[in-house]
Amino acid sequence: MKKKIKSINFIMITILLLAVTACGQKSEENKNASVSTNDNDMFIFIEAYKKKILNDRTSIKECAETYDQQIDEILVQDNGTLDFSNCDFADFPDINSMKVMYTENHGITVEESWNAIEEWLKQIGKYDQVDMKNEVHVISPELGMDESKEYPDCYELFYENKDRLSSGEGAFINNQLCHIQIAVNGIYSMSNGKITERLGKKGKSASDALGVYTGDVVEEGLYAAMKDKSYMLNGNDLTIEEGAELVKTYFMNGTPFKLDKAISVDIPEVRVFQIGDSYGYDYMVRRNYEGVPFAYRDYGESKQPDSYSVTPDIKHAYVIDETGVCAFAGYNESEKLNIVYEDSKMIDLESACNILKSGLAKHLAAEISTAGIVYLPVDMAPFEVDSENMVYPCWELKGVNTTKNENILIYVDVFTGEIYYYTTTMDENE
User: Fold this and answer.
1) Alpha-carbon dihedral angle through residues 275, 281, 284, 288, given to the nearest 10 degrees
2) Is the model more confident about 127 or about 388?
3) How far apart are CA 117 and CA 49, in angstroms?
4) 64, 81, 111, 340, 413 from 348: Cα distances, Å
5) What is the structure's pLDDT at 305?
6) What is the CA angle 220-222-223, rounded to 5?
7) Which of 394, 367, 302 is nearest to 80 (CA)?
8) What is the arithmetic mean of pLDDT over 70-82?
9) Cα angle vertex 427, ends 426, 428, to 5°?
10) Per-domain residue ranges for the chain?
């Protein structure tokens, strides 16, 4: 099977990276919860959230013990317009509590940004081939751009403007040899130029990071089902699992900042693509918080309600030989997560389904393909520059809305029962 993968525009990404998330600090704790903020608006928001928490909840321990039984019951009972007959239910995570959090940018100074680029160039063996003073540019509202010049020269040089910049985000290199782009949490995208070089391309290496050359897919699917398969990568046999371990180690080491001890990364999906007369692996990467995965998605447009915007993790990492990650683009794991509420009770799977039956489900007919517990990032004020990005523990149901022939992703908050959702257009090959 061959499928063309959607890519994203580099310039658009860089503009989006300039967004900043408001944040607060820990201030209060109680029996089952903690509130963390010195921002009055956040405090009010969390207090309002706590008032919506359902009383009829079950201990997480009991939810885990009855999970398999509830799955069996869901598979045989009438779930209205929700069809679970072909659903793959994820394992229940090994947890004692779940949290509500808000995101906070790590922040990166001018010096940290410059040093990160310098160290990265040394790691990929191209420090002596790149003139940093004349090839590191910066996208910054503090400097603007010269529309009379071609990209990347339309953006000011980073080195000669270091004293004018309040942070190091927006710094980038993009030439045929390599590409790197610094965001507020560290490296957002990079390519060591191997894909461009392998294919004999003359363009900018950012294309490697954005998956421009990885669209000739020969096989794809869930990592768990494909991990034991093996392909020849640049003359060497490498299993998908071996490549995945290289990817996980790469990001767990930090890019460049060290990760919080609660954060790990895993690989939910993988694609095998043709590159010349060889193959490469395209791994989707997602965060885990204390063993609970974050919601994730692929590139492409989505339709969302006006009142909020669901913002799952998006990240691709590419491996074309046994040395490991040669390019990637997406969220950075060093983004800070601040706990504002914690609880050891939640609504179980059956309760979440009942909420959907009386809520969203009556407006659709959905064939559910996967279900499980995730952490869901949600922008609660998507049209405001300084809006908070909250992270809610949710039951996640992925499937197809057969009434509109579109993918639908539905989330039910495990504490409040609130429903979040978004839809995407179905690929022609799906």
Assistant:
1) -160
2) 127
3) 41
4) 9, 20, 48, 22, 11
5) 87
6) 100
7) 367
8) 89
9) 115
10) 32-104+338-425, 107-213
Q: What is the dihedral of CA 201, 207, 212, 213, to 10 degrees?
A: 40
**Residue 180 main-chain phi, psi, to 5 deg:** -150, 145
- Residue 412 amino acid letter: V
The two three-digit tokens of residue 388, written as one number: 């908070």
**Could you tell me if 396 and 374 are in contact, meaning their C-beta atoms sit under 8 angstroms apart?**
yes
pTM of the predicted model as reported, rounded to 2 decimal places: 0.89
- Is the sign of the CA dihedral 421, 425, 427, 430 positive or negative? positive
Residue 119 near residue 256, CB atoms below 8 Å: yes
**Residue bearing tokens 């983004």:** 335
Q: Are the CB atoms for 157 and 136 separated by under 8 Å?
A: yes
With 0-12 CB in 10 A as exposed, 13-18 as middle and 19+ as buried, what is 203? middle
Residue 275 token pair? 């590159």
Condensed to tens digits (0 to 9), the pLDDT of residues 151-209 reads 999 999 999 999 999 999 999 999 999 999 999 999 999 999 999 999 999 999 999 99
Query: Dihedrals φ, ψ of 161, to 5°?
Result: -120, 15
CA 383, 289, 111 angle in degrees (round to 5)?
Answer: 70
Do 119 and 129 meet the contact criterion of CB atoms below 8 Å apart? no
Pair of tokens at residue 124: 């990929």
Q: How far apart are CA 400 and CA 290, in angstroms?
A: 30
CA neighbor of 343 nearest in space, from 128, 109, 57, 146: 57
Burial of 371 (0-12, 13-18, 19+ CB in 10 A): buried
Q: What is the Rg, in whole angstroms, of the alpha carbon atoms belonging to the chain?
A: 22
d(CA 291, CA 265): 9
Give CA–CA dist 350/345, Å, rounded.
15
- Count helices and strands in the chain by DSSP H and E runs: 10, 26
Type and span of the H or E element at 374? strand 366-379
Strands (E) in 3-97, as ranges, are 28-29, 34-35, 58-59, 82-83, 88-89
Give residue 349's Cα distance to chain centre: 24
Count of all residues that appear for the chain in the document: 430
Nearest to 154 by CA among 12, 11, 20: 11
Q: What percent of the chain has pLDDT over 70?
A: 88
What type of residue sits at position 283? Y
Joined tokens for residue 420: 């979040």
